[in-house]
Design a protein that fits this description.
The chain contains eight helices and ten strands. The strands form two sheets. An eight-stranded parallel barrel has the order 1-2-3-4-5-6-7-8, surrounded by five helices. It starts with a strand and ends with a helix. α4 (91-100) links the parallel β4 (82-85) and β5 (105-111). The protein has helices at 14-22, 43-50, 68-78, 91-100, 116-124, 154-163, 179-186, 205-216, and strands at 5-8, 27-31, 58-63, 82-85, 105-111, 130-134, 168-171, 190-193, 198-199, 202-203. It has a single domain, classed as TIM Barrel. 35% of the residues lie in helices and 20% in strands. The radius of gyration is 16 Å and the shape is globular. The protein is an alpha/beta fold.
Length: 217
């Protein structure tokens, strides 16, 4: 199979954005306010970084909002070209986003907990452009909505890839040591990572290089 698309998440500066792009990232993740997890930055900084992202590179705005008006306001402020919904939303929200933001891609995160996640993915697939599989837990008192650095059950991830007709990104605990296994077993459209290419929260060029080399092996 072809090498998957690479999305580097938790981008926190223009410099990190340029570094990720130089190493072949086709998408960048920009994290807005979250209940927990790494990488949140202000909407003002997200908007600034987006102005430095060249055409052809996807800018993913990660939002934990669950109502259409708030999500639309965030996109219009930041100008990101892709919305990554990290929590569940009603079907009416997808419809409102399509109406108000017709040229913006919608990505729904499915937190893979058990095989019930397969049905969840199948239920949202008709309304979104892509699905992203992560290892959070939105059922906790303080929700985990990404950036855990944990690997989930790739057997379930593979079943989701085989069950839906939209592209699927795989996230959760990916690094240079396990990425080939992930590609060959899950066969995702894309890979999404944050902590696997960072040291003390900062994007690390050596780790990024090793990861990209492992992907291409």
């Amino acid at each position: 199979m072809n090498n998957p698309k690479i999305k580097i998440c938790c981008i926190s500066s223009v410099e990190e954005a340029k570094l990720a792009i130089n190493y072949g990232a086709s998408a960048l993740g920009l994290v807005s306010t979250m209940p927990s997890g790494p990488g949140p930055i202000s909407e003002e900084l997200i908007a600034e970084i987006v102005t430095h992202i060249p055409d052809g590179i996807a800018s993913f705005l990660l939002t934990s909002k669950q109502d259409a008006d708030s999500i639309i306001a965030q996109q219009r402020k930041t100008k990101a070209n892709t919305l990554q919904l990290v929590d569940s939303v009603p079907v009416e929200v997808y419809k409102a986003l399509r109406k108000e933001l017709p040229h913006i891609s919608i990505v729904q995160v499915i937190h893979v907990i058990d095989e019930s996640s397969i049905d969840e993915a199948k239920s949202v697939a008709p309304f979104v452009d892509m699905i992203l599989l992560d290892s959070g837990n939105p059922k906790l008192v303080i929700k985990e909505l990404g950036g855990t650095g944990r690997r989930h059950d790739w057997n379930v991830s593979r079943m989701i890839v085989e069950s839906v007709n939209v592209p699927v990104f795989l996230a959760g605990g990916l690094n240079a040591e396990n990425v080939r296994e992930a590609i060959e077993f899950v066969q995702p459209y894309g890979l999404d990572l944050c902590s696997g290419v960072r040291v003390n929260g900062k994007l690390n060029e050596e780790k990024l290089q090793k990861f990209m080399e492992a992907v291409k092996q």
